[in-house]
Amino acid sequence: MKLNYKKIGEHIRLVDERNKGLQVKQLLGLSISKQFIPSVANIIGTDMENYKIIRRNQFACSTMQVRRDKKMPVALLQEVDEAIISQAYPIFEVKNEKELLPEYLMMWFTRSEFDREACFHAVGGVRGSLEWEDFENLQLPIPHPNKQKEIVKEYNTIVNRIALNNQLIKKLEETAQAIYKQWFVDFEFPNEHGKPYKSNGGEMVESELGEIPKGWTFSKIGNEFNLTIGRTPPRIQVEWFNNPTKNNLDWISIKDIQSSDTFLFKTNEQLSQEAIKKFSIPIIPY
């Protein structure tokens, strides 16, 4: 056993409190990004008394399809005092918060190393579910509570900085989109005098796309860019995916594109050189 590492199961317990009398109204779902989200489930005709109540500082998780998703969804409720969630999700809480802080445990759950270990222990075919006993047997270091508080504080400082940077990036992207529209849709880019081109008498000519500034032309994307179609090796060969080494390459999936904004800086998976060569996977230069 690793030094100072303890089994998760030694410090948590399952909670199964049902919504008897419909005392709780707010219904939440659980996302793969380890956050609670407003539920979009169709609850018409559903017995809401059978839903589970989750309270502040309790966790909800999903042990299903861990291997397929390469993540174990788990979230700590802190935004509200109580809510209800599908009975399909196990609810658990820390036994003694004087020994293990819920925030510290949640911080551990957000680590990519935790997801990789959970994926390793997941069983049951390609989708792969994680047995509750195996989840409880996963280990984490548990320092003194004061040290846990220090770690959580530093972690939250970094998370808040990231959130602030993301807000700044969003503002810059909105500004860039506004400039793009002004220049390339409204054709109000600065002329030689620094004034908006079209509204200050800039010459326009007819084209297949309508009026465009004189000297401009249009072209098909295929004439200007090299286009290629990606390939996906069989997912059943799990060793080809998500095994970071210096030789493996970042693997851009549809999920990465859907979860990114204008630019893609990081992928959720890497692909082995063996799979790249075997299936002639196109390599995109940085």
Question: Could you characterize the architecture of this molecule?
Answer:
- The protein is of the alpha+beta class and 286 residues long.
- Among the domains are: 138 residues, Adenine-n6-DNA-methyltransferase TaqI, Chain A, domain 2; 60 residues, no CATH class.
- The protein contains 8 helices and 14 strands.
- The strands form 5 sheets. It has a 4-stranded antiparallel beta sheet with strand order 2-9-6-7, covered by helices on one side.
- A hairpin with a 5-residue loop joins strand 3 and strand 4.
- It starts with a strand and ends in an 8-residue tail after the last helix.
- The mean pLDDT is 90.
Counted beta strands = 14
Approximate helicity band:
25-40%
Distance between the termini: 42 Å
If you consult CATH, what is the topology of the domain at 5-142? Adenine-n6-DNA-methyltransferase TaqI, Chain A, domain 2
- In the CATH hierarchy, the architecture of the domain at 5-142 is Alpha-Beta Complex
CATH class of the domain at 5-142: Alpha Beta
Which helices and strands appear, and what pairs or packs with what?
Layout: E1 5-7, E2 12-15, E3 27-30, E4 36-38, E5 52-55, E6 58-61, H1 66-69, E7 74-76, E8 82-85, E9 91-94, H2 102-109, H3 112-121, H4 132-137, E10 139-141, H5 145-185, E11 204-207, E12 210-213, H6 221-224, E13 249-251, H7 254-259, E14 269-271, H8 273-278
Parallel strand pairs: 3-8
Antiparallel strand pairs: 1-10, 2-9, 3-4, 5-8, 6-7, 6-9, 11-12, 13-14
